[in-house]
Design goal:
Chain lengths: ~120, ~400
């Protein structure tokens, strides 16, 4: 399944007309110890670029923006009990939410893994 | 403002909270390039993530805030606080320095014995807190009479205030070529004693000069800190500080810790942070710091802000008071969150975060006096949600300062 990355350090894994969203290992490393994650409820309509989730680390609250538009299918309930999954498994078990891909065209211009790696190295 | 790579990730609120809640800088200095601390290279070599704070590039964390926080509570951590202002005051005439400083500070400095440290503050005419600070009476054979440490973000304003109000026969020296380290934690005394024999004989809130034989460095060491643990603050020439820091972390009990852990430790210890929990609009009585208004000076007066403080002390008429709040759940309430009693807005959070020691969020808030009783149930509003909170005594985590004979 193709995986895309944004300059806001989110990853989007597309499976047909659904996508799973999370933050990257680089992002969790920058945030530090995560103590709380607020994920959107299923049925919420997301618009690309709007606030979709909030992640609280020991020191800071940070917004996670919807990298593409769509309807939320599911938030990751496991993060409620174990928000540290974002630190320990950011790109697998620590996913934030799944949504429908409303406009596949919004994926154009996002980075692949190699481009994202180069982007992080440039920071 | 923020420049480090730590700020490029997840913009907006990360910038605001990490940046602004850790930054007391006024707009005027945001445009100046951040200065580097004497240990800048050392911090980077030890894996620090650097952020801008108080006009300096400073380490916010090394391996992680929670790990550093817990290490400090169980072992000993080395913090670089060289951004703080170290000032010396001297006068030719005996007693002139104490008298001059007493016109600006509510502390009894005339009767402060050599080697003793006091927590005090600079007040304005309305009793508002311009800064909080530590002041020490130096031994009689010293070149100066008093040593003072003020906050980094306010030091230039403090220096201006002191210059304006101190008489001309008082010489104030800003020790800007001296570094300041804090070694904090239950193993701090044992670790420092190895390098600086005799240092563990200092009592809490005492200070003295020491020599570090190996580095041929003179140091001024105080048994003080900002973590709630036993510990020391060590003033040392900037040119010697890297070698001394190396010697400290060569001890397996000592690890470097950053501003993030410093903030979470002081919050658990119930210690206010200037620019957040204390401002020039807040007086010592409302802040719960009336202990810094020494008894004899309350009666004598003669310091800036005295009349305003006395009105609040005698009438007990503070509109709001600083309280500790314990939250349920895991969602922290940060600075600026509003405090409600039912539907009534009764206060504002000035510091808040997740307590690693307690495993739940805690906060300091200014709350209308009638809602400040221990056990009062209140609610904090975070992103439209109401979080239940209870007024609890501070410190949130008991202090473990060194007490002689204890």
């Amino acid at each position: 399944m193709p995986r895309y990355f944004t300059e806001e350090h989110e990853w989007i894994e597309v499976d047909g007309d659904a996508a799973t969203i999370g933050i990257t290992d680089y992002a969790q490393e920058q945030l530090g110890d995560v103590v709380f994650v607020e994920v959107p409820q299923s049925g919420t309509m997301m618009t690309k670029g709007k606030e979709a989730a909030v992640v609280e680390s020991v020191k800071a609250a940070s917004d996670v923006y919807a990298p593409i538009s769509g309807e939320v299918l599911e938030g990751n309930a496991a993060l409620e009990d174990d928000p540290a999954l974002v630190n320990t498994s950011p790109e697998e078990e620590g996913w934030f939410f799944k949504l429908t891909v409303a406009d596949a065209g919004e994926l154009d211009g996002l980075m692949d893994a190699a481009a994202y790696k180069a982007f992080c190295e440039s920071l | 403002m923020a420049k480090g790579p730590g700020f490029r990730v997840l913009p907006s609120r990360a910038l605001r909270d990490l940046g602004l809640s850790m930054t007391d800088t006024d707009n005027e200095i945001e445009d100046l390039p951040a200065e580097q601390l004497p240990l800048d290279v050392w911090h980077r070599a030890h894996g620090a993530r650097m952020v801008e704070f108080a006009g300096y590039e400073m380490p916010i964390q090394y391996e992680g805030i929670v790990a550093e926080h817990e290490w400090t509570r169980n072992h000993a951590s080395l913090f670089d606080v060289s951004h703080m202002g170290q000032l010396m005051f001297a006068a030719d005439e005996a007693g002139a320095c104490a008298a001059a400083l007493e016109a600006l500070l509510p502390a009894d400095l005339a009767n402060l014995r050599p080697h003793r440290v006091r927590y005090s503050m600079l007040l304005n005419e309305s009793g508002g807190i311009l800064d909080d600070l530590m002041v020490t009476r130096l031994p009689e054979d010293s070149a100066a009479d008093f040593y003072m440490v003020v906050n980094g973000a306010t030091k230039w304003d403090d220096i201006g205030h002191l210059r304006e109000h101190l008489p001309d026969d008082i010489t104030m020296t800003h020790l800007d070529d001296w570094a300041l380290l804090a070694l904090q934690g239950p193993q701090a005394a044992a670790a420092l004693e190895v390098l600086v024999p005799g240092v563990s004989d200092l009592g809490f809130m005492q200070a003295a000069s020491f020599d570090w034989a190996e580095g041929k460095a003179a140091m001024w060491i105080s048994r003080t800190g900002y973590s709630g643990e036993d510990g020391f603050e060590i003033s040392i020439e900037a040119g010697r500080v890297a070698t001394f820091a190396d010697a400290l972390v060569a001890d397996e009990r000592v690890k470097p810790a950053g501003l993030g852990a410093r903030d979470s430790l002081r919050l658990e210890a119930g210690l206010p942070l200037y620019g957040h929990d204390l401002t020039e609009d807040i007086d010592p009585v409302s802040a719960g710091l009336a202990f810094a208004l020494s008894k004899s000076r309350r009666e004598q007066g003669g310091y800036m802000g005295h009349a305003a403080c006395m009105v609040r002390l005698e009438a007990g008429g503070m509109a709001q008071q600083r309280v500790g709040l314990a939250l349920e759940g895991r969602l922290p309430a940060r600075e600026g969150a509003q405090v409600f009693a039912g539907e009534t807005l009764v206060g504002t959070v000035t510091s808040g975060g997740f307590s690693p020691t307690l495993g739940h969020p805690i906060a300091m808030a200014y709350v209308e006096t009638e809602h400040t009783g221990i056990g009062t149930a209140l609610e904090l509003e975070v992103r439209g949600k109401r979080l239940p909170a209870t007024v609890v005594p501070m410190p949130f985590v008991p202090h473990r300062y060194h007490r002689k004979g204890a």
